[in-house]
Design a protein that fits this description.
By secondary structure, this protein is α+β, with helices and mostly antiparallel strands. It has 3 helices and 4 strands; from the N terminus they run E-E-H-H-H-E-E. The protein has one domain. The longest helix is centred in the middle third of the chain and has 16 residues. It comes from Planomonospora sphaerica.
Length: 100
């Protein structure tokens, strides 16, 4: 049985939080090796997606590029803290999240 642990993180203006299913990290690359978390992190660092819209779009392109290497279900969820207009004073952290 998998044990869940609550973690509290602060989200600042412009931050994006993403979560994906293991079908993506278990996908096979063109060399036959698993993409794994390090490969996914390297890919996202290279393409540098912007905001909560950019992250799923970048992951979708990766899934398309992997083609037949993706054999399990995949999903990604991205949440962001939108930037505040310049006229509004900063009160960071703007919100906090607790994940389980």
């Amino acid at each position: 049985m998998r044990r869940l642990e609550a973690v509290r993180r602060h989200a600042f203006l412009g931050d994006v939080c993403g979560k994906g299913a293991d079908g993506l990290t278990e996908a096979r690359t063109e060399t036959g090796s698993m993409l794994d978390e390090e490969g996914l992190t390297a890919y996202l660092a290279a393409v540098s997606p912007s905001g909560a819209d950019g992250l799923p779009a970048a992951v979708r392109k990766l899934i398309d590029d992997l083609g037949g290497g993706v054999s399990d279900d995949t999903a990604v969820l991205a949440l962001s803290v939108p930037g505040r207009p310049a006229a509004v004073p900063s009160q960071e952290p703007w919100c906090s999240m607790t994940t389980v």
